[in-house]
UniProtKB/TrEMBL annotation:
Protein name: Dipeptidase
UniProt keyword Protease present: yes
CDD domains the record matches: rDP_like (cd01301)
Keywords attached to this entry: Dipeptidase, Hydrolase, Protease
Organism: Mucilaginibacter sabulilitoris
Xref: SUPFAM superfamilies: Metallo-dependent hydrolases
Family matches, as Gene3D superfamilies: Metal-dependent hydrolases
Length: 390
């Protein structure tokens, strides 16, 4: 009997791993937020080939069972009128070029029907999300232009406020000096216009006042493309319990962010110490990348062994997913990794190849295959269809 025990255990473990892969690969996994395009303008990496740096390429995406990626179109607040919209189009051009070079691997999807058709062809469905209302430069016709090019959501603010919507950062740090809080009348017009175009309204990054103004204005379900639970990590970028409940009542979806700083409340203090030790090097990298966030990502790559010690365990990320499911229901949770947009992610989540580990951990918590399908992409598909009508 003892001789048979080890082979039996090995077979059981192997079968379990096969089951994880079968369940994971069958799902339509949609990641609602990845910043690789803004990085690629600097790195010039060929994203069709496996890369040793960064979190995304088409090879690892296939391995991770990623079926659809909403690529973030982003630029920082130093871009404004006359430059931000141009940068948005430059990044969209970059995505178009990737698709043109690899028509057998990736295709542009403008709605849920096209997404499903592309998945059936065993290609990655590429969608576009514009991160930051400053990129429309206060012009409604720029929204129309971006929608025609494939924009499926607009994140109303990045960290910086616009003239018509206040951000989470500014509502917390500049509340008394802001000309207004929440959505202005023009901001409400923008929300209604996005509804009319079938473009999802993204409430990640927006201030609490803006968040509730959006829900009072929109006629369609919204998404939070990359946010976590404030009750676990009280970061201003995370959503409080009452916000999560309101989002669920709207029929929307919160897509859980993998960034260590939004997952682990202790991360910020640890990373401040790390950055302080390498300040001179970081200052030099900022001159190259022209952005402190991108420079910090590079700093972490250079000092990989040291930065590894700062990362929270994977269990903390799963805790955010499980907490939100238990609070507002499994129909309102999705995946919004923020890969290539942050310098640190939980241990074991190194790239898009690692998504199956989420499925494995959810199975350990006795989530059903149906509920896992919803979290991995079914819920986002529902909201995408509810906005676009197809």
């Amino acid at each position: 009997m003892k001789k048979l025990l080890l082979p039996f255990l090995f077979f059981s473990l192997k079968l379990s791993a096969q089951n994880v892969q079968q369940i994971h690969q069958k799902a339509i996994l949609i990641d609602t937020h990845n910043d690789v395009l803004s990085n690629q303008l600097i790195t010039k990496f060929d994203l069709a080939k496996r890369q040793t740096e960064g979190n995304f390429d088409l090879v690892r995406a296939k391995e991770g069972g990623l079926k659809a990626q909403i690529f973030s179109i982003w630029c920082g607040e130093k871009y404004g009128k006359g430059t931000a919209f141009a940068m948005a189009n430059r990044e969209i051009d970059s995505l178009y070029a990737l698709i043109k070079r690899n028509p057998d691997k990736i295709a542009l999807a403008r709605n849920s029907a096209e997404l499903q058709n592309i998945v059936k062809q065993k290609k990655l469905a590429a969608l576009i999300g514009v991160e930051g209302g400053h990129m429309i430069e206060d012009r409604m016709d720029y929204i129309d232009s971006l929608a025609k090019r494939g924009m499926r959501y607009l994140t109303l603010t990045w960290n910086n406020s616009t003239s018509w919507a206040t951000s989470a950062r500014d509502e917390v740090t500049k509340k008394d000096s802001l000309p207004h809080l929440g959505l202005s009348d023009y901001g409400k017009q923008i929300v209604r216009h996005l509804n009319g175009l079938g473009v999802m309204v993204d409430v990640s990054h927006v201030g609490e006042r803006t968040f509730y103004d959006v829900l009072a204005t929109t006629t369609k379900p919204v998404i939070a493309s990359h946010s976590c639970a404030y009750s676990i990590d009280p970061n201003r970028r995370n959503l409080k319990d009452e916000q999560l409940k309101a989002l669920a009542k709207n029929g929307g979806v919160v897509c859980v962010n993998f960034y260590s700083g939004f997952v682990d409340s202790a991360y910020s203090a640890k990373v401040q110490s790390f950055v302080k030790q390498h300040k001179a090097e970081l200052d030099s990298l900022v001159k190259i990348y022209h952005d402190v966030d991108l420079a910090t990502i590079r700093l972490n790559t250079i000092h990989k062994t040291e930065s590894e010690q700062l990362r929270p365990p994977l269990s903390m990320l799963i805790h955010h997913i499980d907490y939100i499911v238990k609070l507002i229901g499994v129909d309102h949770v999705g995946i919004g990794s923020d890969f290539d947009g942050s310098e640190s992610f939980p241990q074991e989540m190194n790239s898009v190849a690692d998504y199956p580990k989420i499925t494995e951990e959810l199975l350990k918590l006795h989530y059903s295959e149906k509920d896992i399908d919803k979290i991995l992409g079914g819920n986002v598909m529902r909201v995408l269809k509810a906005n676009a009508g197809k």
